[in-house]
Give the backbone structure.
Amino acid sequence: MTETRDQGLLTIGAVARATGLTASALRFYGDCGLLAPAVVDEVTGYRYYTPEQCARAVLIRRLRGIELPLPEVAEVLDAGAARAREVLDRHVAELARRAAAAAAVAGEVRQVLAARGGVTVDAAGFARAVRQVVRAAVVDPELPVLAGVLLEVDDTGVTVTATDRYRLSTRSVAPRRGVERSWSAVVEAGVLTAAVAEAPGELVLAEDEGGVRIVTGAASRRLPGIAAEFPDYRAVLAGMGPARTRVLLGRAPLLAALEAATATVPLVFAGAGVALGGPVPVTLPATVTGAPLRLAFDPRVLRPAVEDALGPELMLDLTAPDQPVVLRSATDGDLTTLVMPVDPAH
């Protein structure tokens, strides 16, 4: 595939490989206004970027890697040097700690045994991604595949997906090195979690006769696959209409408000806030774009989705009271979760 157009623009896949951000993370930052594509094809919707935007993308990735909030990322990128220094100085301790950790990792020398078609990822980052997704899996005797996690490998990285039909979580992780070919497999959620929990440094994931082989240093382990078709979650995502309302709010305040909820929670998205009903009503500050909308959620479904989110902010895309809500967040990878609203009468 040609990576550039005649004008010298880069495809979203090329920018992903050049910067370490996944394609979904680039779309997220475009929707936030931090990294708008230079051109969006009116027919296909494909996004294209200038080579110069790669430097901005790398800086965004680094700032988000230390969980700098989105408004402050914008300040660092667009404000004057003095203000940028002031914002960054507040994070110097964390930056120093991360720099020391990075130096320790860089000092380690590891020889990875890569199988044919394998993909190399950061072990700790991949284990984190698995933990964030697996809670959407469920043991269902009628649909055994729902106890599994779908692993999809392509040239943009590894996508990890699980669903219980009421909640769907999917997370992508950027590869450390290029991917030889695309493949997918479904493995049992608990087995996968245990296999990657203590893996050091880097690990290699490779397709192995319907299952997955995990290679860490000199150790190798095969995880058997689940021989059933995983739900076509991409068709669900593609079939959703455009967002009628988009909400950007803090993750911690929403999680705190949901902690005390034991029954269906009504939420009203309007103006400059999100109003939560229940025994102790509360209104959370938020940026709401689009038409006001009222939905209700089962806190047992919504709370885990918020707990597992990445970063300090959440973006919610709302379509209708009876359609899934898309909950997104991103750092050096991305986490997208679909949560079904409920009938407020139940």
Summary: The two ends are 51 Å apart (CA to CA). The longest helix spans residues 92-106. The CA atoms of residues 130 and 193 lie 6 Å apart. DSSP finds eleven helices and 19 strands in the chain.
